[in-house]
Every structure is written in C-alpha cells, then in structure tokens.
Backbone:
C-alpha cells in the first residue's frame, strides 16, 4: 500500500470538518463551546436537582415536538444505550414471541438477544442479504415485531409500517432518529441512542412509547416476571415522569442532545432534517451512479439511506488505501463496517454535516483515486 502520509490534498478539497463517521458522529464545535460555557452550573451537579431535571424535561419536550408524538405517547430515558434497550425489551416488553427483520449487523443482534433469553420462545427471524431488506409478515404467534429503520452497517433504510394490529412494534431507530421521517402512529417503541443524528455522545437510550407499549410494560411488571432493576422499563418510565433517569446519566450527553434537538427544530423539524441529509447523501449517490469505478452498494434506490452512504469500488481502487490517505489528511472514519468486509467506503450524512463538506469529500475522493492510480502506473525502482 502506498505511503498515505506522502499524499497531500489541496486545501480547496479539505472539508471544514473532516469527521464523517457513522457513530459517534461529528458534534458541532459550537455545541462543545456552549457546554464549556456552563462552567460550574451544570457538570458536577446532582441529577436529582432542578437544573438537570429541567434539562431532561427539555429533551423530552423537544423530542415530542420533533417526532409529532401522538396523545398519550411518553419519552423515557436510561443508561446503557440501544444495546441495553434490547435486553430491557426482552424482559419488559416481549411477552412470549417476537419477529425480527435481520439484514445487517445491528438488526441481527436484537434477535440474538431474544434467542438467548430463557423465558422467551424462539424468535421468528426474517433474513435478507446485506444491502437489501426483508419484509415483516403477520404471525398470530408473535406479540412483538422488532424492526430496524436504518441498518447502520450496510446503509439500508426501510419504511416503518405496522405489520399487524395484534402485536407491539418496536423500532430500532439509532441511526435514523432525528433524520428520517416516520409515522409515529405505526410504532409502539421508537428507541435510539443519541450519538448519530443528535450529535451527542453514546451510553444513553431514549424511547418514545405508545399507550399500548406502556400497558404492556405495566402488565409484564405486575405478572411476577423477574426483571433486574436496570432492565425494568417500568422503572425507567416512572423516573422519566419525574424528568430523571433511574441512575446517574452522562449530563454532557443530555446537554449536547438538547442543543441538537433545538437545531433540528430550527432546521424545519424532522422534515427539514431529512431534506438536509437527503441533499448530502444524494451528492454521493449521484456521483457513484455515474462513476467509472464506484457504485452504490444498496442497489435499490428506495432502500438507500439518507444518513449512511455505502459506496463500493471495483478492483482498480483499493478502498483501504483510499481511506488511509483521506485519514492522513484529516478526513476520518469513512472506512466500511468492519464485519461487512467489502471494498467500500461508508460515509455519514447526518443533519449536522453541511452539504458543502460532502461535496468537498466527493471531490477529494476523486483526487485521491487519481493519485493512487498514478502511483500504481509509475515504474518501480529497485
């Protein structure tokens, strides 16, 4: 592989911010400056006192507005991220049997959690190859349908639609929430972590729950099922109604998330955020569709994510070398998902990423490809 440090991009091809990771995503420097400006008034204060509880309330109210939460829907929060929410749902939401759509790394993991949970039946798992998506199907034995709105590992996005009126619909929206439009009436638990479109840090789960989901949580908790306190969504719900979490949250994560929620609302809400991300992702899809050596990994345009763009390259381009050169020039985290094992780049286009930065990245990729090709054609000396 060529020496990545020896290839220097012209300054006019450098984005204003070189962070294009799919998570943790870029945090606007102005948000970090605002956090620092709080001084001693926020960080290091009790999460049970009005200052932090007011911050939690602001997050809850902002999300309810952003998602157009229907009457009776509630926002809960808890430590551990969306990964912990899978465990919590296995104990607090699924009664007996769930159906899962598995079409990538993260959509498959929830199914694995359920399969290993002793008090639940074997899950009904509908699979599809990476780069495509399966369809949910009504099953009278299923009481919970687990969907994924955006598969972060592959760049596939799906429409959130209730498969059956007889079961709860749980939607993993970690890389979709705050950037992709959805109909909240189609979901009962819309859950995510804030380190993607919400330009914050990880370690927190947030979920919007329907009245049906709340009734299920309360009923399972009353049934006598043994539920660890940290996996009890009833405990999370009771604390959320007090504008707090069960145990101490990362306050900086809440502060940064609250700022980004406000920024998304100023952008035009969920529709405006979706349009911003779509404009940015379209720059890359249009480029790859006509490129001599690149192509969108997701073949069906209807499934192409507006926030996670995956681009395949033919054998004439070494995507690993390409990413290494970009990284040496300060353009980072565009490598493909490690377990996918493809000759590709994966580029995040969350709402906090300006379209102009994506345009510069596109041009930088072309410039580096040309330089790598020149190096490959150059005569080798002993």
Residues:
């Amino acid at each position: 592989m060529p020496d990545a440090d020896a290839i220097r991009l012209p300054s006019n091809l450098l984005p204003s911010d070189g962070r294009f990771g799919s998570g943790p995503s870029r945090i606007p420097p102005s948000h970090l400056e605002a956090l620092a400006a709080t001084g001693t008034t926020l960080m290091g204060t009790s999460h049970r006192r009005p200052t932090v509880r007011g911050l939690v309330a602001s997050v809850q109210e902002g999300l309810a507005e952003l998602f157009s939460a229907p009457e009776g829907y509630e926002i809960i929060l808890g430590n551990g991220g969306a990964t912990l929410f899978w465990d919590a749902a296995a104990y607090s939401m699924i009664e007996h049997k769930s159906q899962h759509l598995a079409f990538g790394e993260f959509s498959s993991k929830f199914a694995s959690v359920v399969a290993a949970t002793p008090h639940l039946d074997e899950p009904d798992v509908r699979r599809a190859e990476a780069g495509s998506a399966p369809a949910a199907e009504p099953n009278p034995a299923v009481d919970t349908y687990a969907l994924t709105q955006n598969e972060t590992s592959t760049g596939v996005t799906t429409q959130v639609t209730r498969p059956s009126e007889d079961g709860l619909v749980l939607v993993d929206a970690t890389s979709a929430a705050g950037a992709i439009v959805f109909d909240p009436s189609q979901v009962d638990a819309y859950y995510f972590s804030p380190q993607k479109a919400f330009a914050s840090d990880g370690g927190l789960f947030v979920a919007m729950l329907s009245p049906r989901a709340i009734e299920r949580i309360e009923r399972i908790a009353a049934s006598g099922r043994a539920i660890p306190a940290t996996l009890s969504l009833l405990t999370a719900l009771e604390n959320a109604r007090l504008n707090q979490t069960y145990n101490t949250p990362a306050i900086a994560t809440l502060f940064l998330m609250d700022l980004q929620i406000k920024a998304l609302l100023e952008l035009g809400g969920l529709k405006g955020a979706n349009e911003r991300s779509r404009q940015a992702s379209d720059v890359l899809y249009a480029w790859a569709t006509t490129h001599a050596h690149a192509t969108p990994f997701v073949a069906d345009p209807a499934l192409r994510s507006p926030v996670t763009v995956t681009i395949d390259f033919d054998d004439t381009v070494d995507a690993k070398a390409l990413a290494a050169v970009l990284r040496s020039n300060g353009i980072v985290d565009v490598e493909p998902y490690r377990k996918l094992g493809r000759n590709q780049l994966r580029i995040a286009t969350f709402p906090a990423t300006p379209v102009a930065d994506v345009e510069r990245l596109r041009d930088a990729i072309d410039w580096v490809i040309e330089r790598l090709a020149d190096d490959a054609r150059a005569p080798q000396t002993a």
